[in-house]
Design brief:
Elements lengths: L3 H17 L2 E5 L6 H13 L2 E6 L1 H9 L14 E6 L4 H14 L5 E6 L2 E3 L1 H9 L3 H44 L1
Antiparallel strand pairs: 1-3, 1-4, 2-3, 4-5
Helix pairs in contact: 1-3, 2-4, 4-5
C-alpha cells in the first residue's frame, strides 16, 4: 500500500517535472508491455525528456500548483506522461517513432506545449519538425554558404589571373 508520504513525494516529483517542462504529452499506456515501456522510456530520455506513469489524482495535484490546468480534461483512465525539457520536438519524435516502429496502438490524448494545450494532430505535426540540433546545423550551413561562395569567386579570379600570366609568359618565351 502506498502511504500518504509516498504520494506527497510523488506529487512533488511530478510538480518538479511539469514546472521544468516545455512539453507534456498525455497518453494511455494500455497495450504496452513492461519491455515496451522501458524501451520507450530509454528513447524519450535519450531525446531529453522523461516518460512517467502516474495516477490521475496525483497529476491533478501537481498541475494545480503549475500552469498545466489545460490538460485536466485529458486525465481519464490509465495515464502516462512524456515530458520534454529543453527541446520539445525530441521527446515527441521519440514517442511517435516508437509507435511507428513497434506498430503499437496508444491513445495520445494531447498535451501542453509551452503553456498552451495541443491536440494529438498538432503533436504529430511537431514530431515531423527537425530537432533543435538539425535546425542549428541547417542555419550554420546557410550562413556559411555565402562566405564559401565569396571565397570560391575570389579564388577563381586569382586562378584566372594566374592562367593569364602563365599564358603571357609562354607567349613571350615562344616569341623570344
Amino acid at each position: 500500500m502506498v502511504t500518504l508520504a509516498k504520494k506527497q513525494e510523488r506529487v512533488v516529483d511530478l510538480k518538479d517535472q511539469l514546472s521544468r517542462a516545455q512539453l507534456a504529452v498525455v497518453s494511455d499506456y494500455r497495450g504496452l508491455t513492461v519491455k515496451d515501456m522501458n524501451d520507450l522510456r530509454r528513447r524519450v530520455q535519450a531525446a531529453g525528456g522523461d516518460y512517467t506513469v502516474a495516477k490521475n489524482t496525483l497529476i491533478r495535484r501537481a498541475l494545480s500548483e503549475t500552469d498545466g490546468a489545460q490538460i485536466d480534461s485529458m486525465l481519464k483512465g490509465p495515464t502516462a506522461l512524456v515530458v520534454g525539457y529543453e527541446d520539445p520536438v525530441g521527446p515527441v519524435k521519440a514517442l511517435m517513432d516508437f509507435l511507428k516502429e513497434t506498430k503499437k496502438e496508444m491513445d495520445i490524448r494531447g498535451g501542453i506545449l509551452e503553456g498552451k494545450a495541443v491536440s494529438n494532430a498538432e503533436l504529430q505535426q511537431i514530431a515531423t519538425l527537425p530537432s533543435r540540433e538539425e535546425m542549428v546545423a541547417k542555419l550554420m550551413g546557410s550562413m556559411q554558404s555565402p562566405a564559401q561562395g565569396v571565397a570560391i569567386t575570389l579564388s577563381g579570379v586569382a586562378r584566372n589571373l594566374a592562367y593569364v600570366l602563365e599564358a603571357i609568359r609562354k607567349q613571350k618565351e615562344e616569341n623570344a
